[in-house]
Amino acid sequence: MKISHEFVQFRGIMQSEVQMQTISIPMRGGGAIKSWADILGVSTNVCIILFFYLFEAFYVMPQFLGLFGQSVHFLVTTWIAYNILENLRLCATTLSTVDSLPPEMQQPMQGEEHLWHFCKICQRNVPPRSWHCNTCDACILKRDHHCNFVGNCVGHNNQRYFIWFSFYAAIGSGVALFDNFMLAHKHGVGFFDLVTANLIIFNAYMNPGRQELVIFYRIVIVLAVNIFAVLFPAILFCTQVATVRKNSVMRDYSDRTYDLGFGNNLGLILGSRRLWTCLAPNIKSPLPHNGTRWKSKRAV
Q1: Which of 238, 250, 74 has its CA nearest to residue 146?
Q2: Partner of 95 for a Cys bridge, out of 23, 100, 155, 270, CB 3.0 to 4.6 A?
């Protein structure tokens, strides 16, 4: 079987690093989140992140570590929290809409009209891999999905930030979970006590004067939220890794039309510096094109 590569769209691909750096990533201003679900999702996200960061640093760790240990733990968790919050901010504020393209790139070149498809909602032709989002009320370049927890569509320009946001959210929550299990063990709370959380809360309600029950159920609630905070972003991250491997999107996970190999796929999504972008969200890593032109892999 012979594999051939062809371009399925016009403009936007830059061959040199100098050219890549000329691509401008559009950002949106504050107050642009329109959906109440987005506002609630982002607010919940930030509150949970800050709660666990402060709870572990100033309540849990002083019970187990000395000054040096606390300092190391504080530095590590601060770096993780920065990566979570800054990747969240950039994912929420980076636009991947077709309207964010320069005007001259919002129309197909002569002879390439067949490569675009028509959006009935926007009443216009849009590039390949672009699909309409009802929440954003716009067509999104290489739309993966709309995520209420970042308040934005995950698409061509901001998928990198979403990947590392979910990665660090899972890592940070995992560190917090380890710390909280130590706290739970200290107070005699076991893992399987989570199953009986309702009974514990009921007992605490019926016996409000028993301080140990109050502490008991508070720890159980923290552990339950913490476990969810680990599993949910971990599942998101694994899903993103799976789509990167195929260069597909969540709406069409099995599609391998644009799969150019894992290494090349990483460059298309993370930019020229690829996995180095995991170190910090402010590392410059230009994308190879503007989201209107995609190389496909076709079996002949």
Answers
A1: 250
A2: 100
Sign of CA dihedral 131, 237, 55, 57: negative
Q: How far apart are CA 207 and CA 50, in angstroms?
A: 31
Output the pLDDT for position 62. 93
Can you point out the beta strands (E) in 17-58? Answer: none
Token digits of residue 26: 């559009």
Q: Which amino acid is at 222?
A: V
Q: Chain centroid to CA 139: how far?
A: 19
Mean pLDDT, residues 293-299 taken together: 72
Read off the pLDDT of residues 47-97 as tens digits, 9 standing for 90 and up.
999 999 999 999 999 999 999 999 999 999 999 999 999 999 999 999 999
pTM: predicted TM-score of the whole model, two decimal places: 0.82
Mind listing the pLDDT tens digit for each residue in 102-158? 888 888 877 777 889 899 998 889 999 999 999 999 999 999 999 999 999 999 999
Q: Is the dihedral of CA 25, 117, 119, 267 positive or negative?
A: negative
Structure tokens at 64: 């187990």
Q: Are 136 and 146 in contact (CB under 8 A)?
A: yes
The CA distance from 86 to 132, in Å, is 26
DSSP 142-203: T--EEETTTTEEE-TTTHHHHHHHHHHHHHHHHHHHHHHHHHHHHTT--GGGGTTHHHHHHH
What do you get for the CA distance between the two ends of the chain, in Å? 7
Q: What is the CA radius of gyration of the chain?
A: 23
Rounded Cα gap, residues 110 and 100, in angstroms: 21
CB 150 within 8 A of CB 162: yes
User: Cβ neighbours of residue 57 under 8 Å, at least 6 residues apart?
Assistant: 70, 73, 74, 77
Helix (H) or strand (E) holding 38: helix 36-55
